[in-house]
Structure prediction request, 240 residues.
Amino acid sequence: MRIKSPRIVHQHERRWRWQLLLLLLLLAAIGWQAYSWGVRQGGYDQERSTRESSALKTALEEQLAEIRELEAESVRYRRQAEIEQQASRELQQQLIGIEDERAALKSEVEMLRALVSSDTGSLYVRNLILQPGEQANHYIYKFTIVQVLEKVKTTRGKLVMKVSGKLDGKKKRLDQAAFSGDDEKAVKLEFSNYKDVAGDMIFPEGFEPESILIEFLPRNKELKKLSKTFAWSDYLQGME
Prediction:
């Protein structure tokens, strides 16, 4: 049998191991102290850093909220500006319409003043226009009947028109029923100060108009009969 000799551990080996362990602990402690010293020297404070990070996050959220509010406010102001621009355009159009109406009323007042100052009556024909139509022997007429007697509030009566000319070289007078397309020889009118009248005339083939007679037969006792003849060629215009 082989006999195993016991291993003898010397005292200096145990001491060396403890010294190595103590050295490692000492190095670890020195390292930790060096780290802590570096952190303190660098001014790093975890608690303060956490507080600052939280404050910065809060400030960022506030800035983002303010940006969103400003964007919404910008949209509101932009919409309000568009509405105001539209309202301004509408007001300008209304102003143009008022100016046109004012000019028309001014012209009417001047016309009425001229008629009153002439002292030739109370019923007048104004702005007579005759225009050729799209077909032969077709004409369009426009004029205004004006009543200037102040005490007459409503004018009532009948309008009669007759056209004189030549048919196949012979003189011919056509009453309203002959050229208006119906059997009515007169048209009933009712108005305050003036009445715009317009219509079509269709003459027989070969008829050449030379003059038009416009008569208004008032029912008001205060008004006298209107009868005025106009030369056809003086009021004939081209188509607009």
About this structure: The first helix runs from residue 11 to 42. Residues 128 and 143 are 4 Å apart (CA to CA). The beta strands are 123-132, 138-147, 155-167, 170-175, 187-191, 194-202, 207-218, 226-231.
